[in-house]
Structures are given as C-alpha cells and as structure tokens.
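Put briefly, the fold is written as integer tokens. One such record reads:
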Amino acid sequence: MSTDGDLLAAYLDNNDESAIAELLRRHGPMVTATCRRIIGDHHEAEDAVQVVFMVLVEKAGSLRHAGSIAGWLYTVGRFIALRSRSAKNVRQSRLHANAAEQLDQLPDISPPEMADGLGDRLDLALARLPEMYLLPILLHYFEGLSYEEIASTLGTPSTTVAMRLSRGRDLLRRRLGVTSVSALTPFLEQAVPRNEPHLLSRHLHSGQPYRECHCVRTKSAESYASF
C-alpha cells in the first residue's frame, strides 16, 4: 500500500488527482469527525474540512516524505475548527445583540454543547500527546487500522506500534482524569461519526480537485500557510 508521502509525490510529480482522492478517503472521516466535534455544526464543519485539504494541497511539497499525515491533518483540522468556532460564536453574539434591540424576547441561539464536554476534553488531551503516540492513536482508533497496517504505514515493528498505543492510551487516561483504560471508551467513541454519510463523499465522485474549489466560506488556505 502506498504511503501518504507516496500519494503526495504522485500528485506533485504527475498531477495525479486520484492521489488526493485517496488521501481524502483515508483521512477524511477522521478530519470530519474532529471538525464536527469542535464546531458542532454540520455545514461549518464541512467548510472547515475543505480548508484543511486545501492547506494540504498547498503544503504537499513539505509532506511528501511522510509515512502518514494523519497527525498533521488532525493538528491542522483542530486549529481551523477552533478558529471557525470562535468566529461562529462572535457572529452569534452580534446577532443576539442586534436582535435584542428590536425584540423583547429571543430564542436561545447559543451553540450546542457536546455532552459533558467529552469532545473538547478529548481533543485537548490528544493535542498534548507527543507525535509518536498521537499518530498510532489516530490511525487505530480514528481510522480503524490494525496494528499490522499501522506498522506497515509507519515502517515500524508491530511490537513498537503496540507499545506506543499502550503508552498513548495511558497518557490519555491520565490527562482525561479517568481511572482505567476501559473508561476511555466514551471519549474514543467520539472519534468517528456514526451512522451518517461522509461529508466529503461528493468530492470523491465529482472529480473536482481541491485546488479549484472556491466554495469554502471560512478562511482561505493562504491564511494557514504557517503549517
């Protein structure tokens, strides 16, 4: 199986759009779940995911030697989603203030909260993991890869993958303040959306390359050039 770096090289060297489509297939659900978890809005999460993959296209050259870009995509996705959520809250506050001048009563327009804040707590804990532990956690729990598949992707022995997953789970457990690894289940179940179509499925079948996509309503890819 081609590594993520191989796919980026194919895109850069041969203008192979199917390579980006394969990266989207591999990592799109994880990025989508992250953005949806943070933003809490289906449509704005879709916009954020599009920005993430636009940034990927812009930064492909610096990532072409990577075994897996899951960690990079998660980090960029979380950053963009947090920016989007912040902007959304500002917009809603302004809407509330303006409407309050004209109406005596307004419905509650505050953004929806994740149950018990599990999503925010999970993402904060993940963001603090070292890359060597974050990447196996993402590939195994968010993307469903087996130990052997992760080992092949990262070019490391399966025993090393198992050790890093065990250490990563232990770090997550401590940072989330839970007493056992089994208590991580409610958090990890938030990793991938259940029973809903993938937000970006239409792009996989439309043939529309991300570098030509102009439908993003959040910040442009150029705004995140520091990644």
About this structure: Residues 1-114+200-227 form a domain with the Rna Polymerase Sigma Factor; Chain: A fold (CATH 1.10.1740.10). Residues 99-116, 195-220 have pLDDT under 50 and may be disordered. The chain has two domains: 1-114+200-227, 115-189.
